[in-house]
Write a structure and sequence with these properties.
It contains 10 helices and 12 strands. It has 325 residues and is of the alpha/beta class. It folds into 2 domains: 3-171 and 224-251, Rossmann fold; 172-222 and 254-292 and 303-323, UDP-galactose 4-epimerase, domain 1, CATH 3.90.25.10.
Length: 325
């Protein structure tokens, strides 16, 4: 039986993973409250509309369906907002995860893929960041991911719940077939904001910080195409189902691009000029974030297919132009 539950499967990364799961023969049940996800992103998968913070919604789902594993994408993700409203983040991100885990244990489901973040590492002490890097999150969003990882370790020890926590760096790009893409409200990610400025949906792109100790003064980040990211989830799921052992794995490309690099490439691909406004650094921004992908390659057999900057920007531009019509 290969029916899996995808919590938050109508969102950006969740929906791309649902699509890949369906392509590879998994039966998928999506559970989403549609507060930020989009119904049309679910495709032909079953959609159950409900809220992880409502324990009866979650318990009822597991009592009515036989599930073999869970992939958990549902959480609040805005780092800046987490500074302003930490109570909201601690309450929603932790309670939703605890409710989901409780329902799993009641139903005897003990395979869990967790959508974590590079934010658990905090300020890098070495580059590229490996999974052995000390964990020291410095914003409430990162703290919530860190706490859930600690909860998972305790649930493994006490209840035998096996998990793989996938620590993302910068997810970007869009479905190469053009069906799915990235849209948040508010939008805080660099690439969609560049494209929205090019489409006239934003007045200008705001660049936060031009005085970092990097070659051009702007922050350098590790971008991974969302389809490659989705593929890693299927590999992790298959690994967990066949060899149930808990682990933590980075998902990144180990290649960095500055903000100005990304802007220049977007201008080259679209033939348009990005209107820019330069602003001071934001609280908590670091100069460089790069992931080691060695463990993902070694343990999962993961290989990047779409994560060059050209492919990331071309697929995102294709989707944004279609969705703007």
């Amino acid at each position: 039986m290969n029916r899996v539950l995808v919590a938050g499967g109508a969102g950006y990364i969740g929906s791309h993973t649902v699509k890949e799961l369906r392509k590879q023969g998994f039966e998928v049940v999506v559970f989403d409250n549609l507060s930020t996800g989009r119904r049309e992103f679910v495709g032909d998968a079953e959609l159950v509309v409900g809220d992880l913070e409502n324990k009866s919604d979650v318990m009822g789902l597991f009592r009515s369906r036989e599930i073999s594993a869970v992939l958990h994408f549902a959480s609040l993700i805005q780092v800046g907002e987490s500074y302003v409203h930490p109570h909201k983040y601690y309450t929603q991100n932790l309670s939703s995860s605890l409710n989901l885990l409780e329902a799993m244990l009641e139903a005897g489901v003990k395979r869990f893929i967790f959508s974590s973040s590079a934010a658990v590492y905090g300020i890098p002490r070495s580059i590229p960041i490996t999974e052995e890097h000390p964990l020291d999150p410095f914003n409430p969003y990162g703290q919530t991911k860190f706490f859930v990882e600690r909860i998972l370790q305790d649930y493994d020890r006490a209840y035998g719940l096996k998990f793989i926590s996938l620590r993302y760096f910068n997810a970007a790009g869009a479905d190469p077939e053009g069906r799915l893409g990235e849209c948040h409200d508010p939008e805080t990610h660099l690439i969609p904001n560049i494209l929205l400025a090019l489409l006239g949906k934003k007045e200008r792109l705001e660049i936060f910080g031009t005085d970092f100790p990097t070659p051009d003064g702007t922050a350098v980040r590790d971008y991974i195409h969302v389809t490659d990211l989705a593929g890693a989830h299927i590999l992790a799921l298959r690994k967990l189902l066949s060899e149930p052992r808990s682990d933590f794995i980075n998902l990144g490309a180990n290649k960095g691009y500055s903000v100005r690099d990304v802007v220049a490439k977007a201008e080259d691909i679209t033939g348009r000029k990005v209107p820019i406004r330069e602003l001071p650094r934001r609280k908590g921004d670091v100069p460089v974030l790069l992931a080691s992908k060695d463990k993902a390659e070694r343990l999962l057999g993961w290989r990047l297919s779409f994560s060059g900057l050209d492919s990331i920007l071309a697929t995102a531009w294709n989707w944004h132009r279609r969705s703007a019509r």
